[in-house]
Amino acid sequence: MSTKTSSITLQSQRVGIFKRGIAAMIDIYISSVLANIPILFIYSIETGETEMSRELSALSSTSGILACILGILLILLYYVVIPVYKFQGQTLMKKLLGFKVMKTDSSNVDLKTMLKREAIGSMIVEGGLISSGNYLRQLILIITRANILHTGLLYISFGTTILSIIYMVFSKEHRTLHDYIAGTRVLDLKS
Questions:
Q1: What does DSSP assign to residue 167?
Q2: Containing H/E element for 16?
Q3: Domain encompassing residue 7
Q4: Is the backbone of residue 41 left (phi > 0), alpha (psi -120 to 50) or beta?
Q5: 35: enclosing H helix or E strand
């Protein structure tokens, strides 16, 4: 009976797919705006323009690499540092909507867990929707100048992201690929 009770408790704490999707979209927007501040500054200094091109490979190699690295670091600040050190497993939208990321053993996330979840899972393995994945692909393009590699990575990352979302929607636990990589799950605090 305790197994059935714990299963019911876990199910009632799962975050709805719509609620999780809304939070993800707004978090992606917030982190992108944050990352674009230094990128736009670098772009403006080098080009003299105030409107930035989407392709940082248009910049000199040094400026492009610096812009990509700063963009990645600021996005990781939003998705890793804030949830670990400020809001205990929550980004701004997760906090506002009342849910959080936890380890599968129900303990709070730590720096190592969130780095695995966001840097490896979201940015490298999935990378289709989150801006850090875009900056990583652009960094690879700037360093290698191989457009075919950039395009291939783009298709792979979007394909992996779509498969991860489909799996989350139809799986019993509603966990994405980056949740499996880090050993995390997303739980509703308002249940």
A1: H
A2: none
A3: 2-188
A4: alpha
A5: helix 17-47
Longest C-alpha distance within the chain, in Å?
68
Question: Is residue 188 within 8 Å of residue 98, measured between CB atoms?
Answer: yes
Amino acid of residue 100:
K
**Beta-carbon neighbour count of residue 165 at 10 Å?**
18
Contacts for 56 with CB less than 8 Å, ≥ 6 apart? 39, 43, 64, 67, 68, 135, 138, 142
Q: What angle do CA 143, 148, 152 make, to 5 degrees?
A: 100
> Which of 111, 133, 116 lies closest to 28 in space, CA to CA?
133
DSSP classification of residue 184: E
For residue 10, give the amino acid letter. Answer: L
Query: How many domains would you assign to the chain?
Result: 1
Alpha-helical segments (H) within 108-172: 111-115, 131-144, 147-170
> What pLDDT digit, counting tens, does each position of 79-114 carry?
999 999 999 999 999 999 999 999 999 899 999 999
- Phi-psi label, residue 43: left if phi above 0, alpha if psi -120 to 50, beta otherwise: alpha
Taking the model in full, what pTM does it have? 0.86
pLDDT tens-digit profile of 143-182?
999 999 999 999 999 999 999 999 999 988 889 999 999 9
